[in-house]
C-alpha cells in the first residue's frame, strides 16, 4: 500500500529541475540530498507545481492513492507507460495502416512490443469519430512528428487517468517532466478501466513501498 508520505518522497526525488524556479540542476540535486534542502524544495512545489501533494497533509492516505503503487515508480517508467497509452489510444488507426513505408515507420517509432500492444488493444478502444485516423495521418510525416504525437496523446491520457484517481497522482506524473511539456486533457480517449488494466498487468517496481526516506513532508 502506498502512503501520502511515500508519494511526496517519490515526487520530490523525481521532479524535473525546471519546477524549482530556475535553480541550476546541480544545485537541485544537492538540495535533494539534505533534509533542509528537501524542505526548501518541498515549499517550492507547494506553491508551484504540486499544491495538493505538498500543500496539504491528510490525516490518512486516501484509499485511491493507497492502491495506486504505480505512482511511485521512476519517471522513466511512467514515461514508458505514457508511450504505451498513446499507442493504445491510436490502436484503431494503427490497425488500418497498410502502406509499407507507413507500417515500417510506426514499428520503428513504437518498437515491436508496443506496436503489438496497440494492435491487440484496438478492439477495446472506444471510438466516437475518426479522430485517431486524423491524428495518425497528420503524424506520419517523420519519425519525430509521429513520436511527438504518441507522447503528447499518451501523457494526456495518463494525466487524465491520474487526476481521476486523485489530483496528487496527476501532480506526480506532471512533475516528472519539464514544466509545460505535458499536455492535459479533460476528455480522455481511453476508458479509465483500460488504463487501470494496463497498469495492473505491468510488473511491480522495486521501489514500491510505504516508507518515507526523506524529509519531503516538512515544509
Portion of residues in helices?
55-70%
Beginning-to-end CA distance, first to last residue: 24 Å
Strand content: under 5%
> In terms of structural class, how would the helical and strand content be classed?
mainly alpha
- What is the β-strand count? 0
- Mean of the pLDDT scores? 88
Number of helices: 13
Q: Outline, from the CA principal axes? A: globular
**SSE pattern:** HHHHHHHHHHHHH
Radius of gyration: 18 Å
Unreliable stretches (pLDDT < 50, length at least 5) are 209-219
Largest sheet: none
Task: Give the count of structural domains.
Answer: 1
How would you portray this structure in words?
- The protein has 219 residues and is mainly alpha-helical.
- The chain has 13 helices and no strands.
- It has one domain.
- The protein is globular.
In summary, what is this structure?
This protein is mainly alpha-helical.
Secondary structure layout plus pairing:
Blueprint: H1 4-14, H2 25-32, H3 35-47, H4 51-55, H5 63-66, H6 75-89, H7 91-95, H8 100-110, H9 112-121, H10 131-139, H11 143-165, H12 167-175, H13 192-201
Quickly list its features.
single chain; mainly alpha; 219 residues; 61% helix; disordered C terminus
Amino acid at each position: 500500500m502506498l502512503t501520502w508520505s511515500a508519494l511526496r518522497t517519490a515526487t520530490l526525488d523525481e521532479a524535473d529541475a525546471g519546477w524549482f524556479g530556475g535553480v541550476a540542476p546541480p544545485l537541485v540535486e544537492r538540495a535533494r540530498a539534505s533534509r533542509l534542502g528537501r524542505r526548501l524544495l518541498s515549499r517550492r512545489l507547494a506553491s508551484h507545481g504540486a499544491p495538493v501533494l505538498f500543500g496539504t497533509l491528510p490525516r490518512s492516505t486516501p484509499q485511491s492513492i493507497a492502491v495506486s503503487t504505480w505512482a511511485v515508480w521512476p519517471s522513466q517508467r511512467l514515461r514508458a507507460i505514457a508511450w504505451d497509452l498513446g499507442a493504445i489510444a491510436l490502436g484503431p488507426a494503427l490497425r488500418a495502416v497498410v502502406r509499407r513505408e507507413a507500417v515500417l515507420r510506426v514499428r520503428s517509432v513504437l518498437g515491436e512490443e508496443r506496436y503489438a500492444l496497440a494492435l491487440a488493444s484496438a478492439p477495446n478502444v472506444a471510438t466516437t469519430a475518426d479522430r485517431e485516423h486524423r491524428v495518425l495521418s497528420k503524424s506520419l510525416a517523420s519519425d519525430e512528428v509521429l513520436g511527438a504525437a504518441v507522447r503528447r496523446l499518451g501523457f494526456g491520457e495518463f494525466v487524465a487517468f491520474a487526476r481521476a484517481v486523485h489530483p496528487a497522482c496527476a501532480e506526480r506524473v506532471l512533475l516528472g517532466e519539464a514544466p509545460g511539456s505535458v499536455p492535459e486533457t479533460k476528455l480522455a480517449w481511453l476508458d479509465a478501466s483500460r488504463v487501470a488494466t494496463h497498469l495492473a498487468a505491468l510488473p511491480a517496481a522495486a521501489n514500491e513501498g510505504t516508507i518515507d526516506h526523506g524529509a519531503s513532508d516538512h515544509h
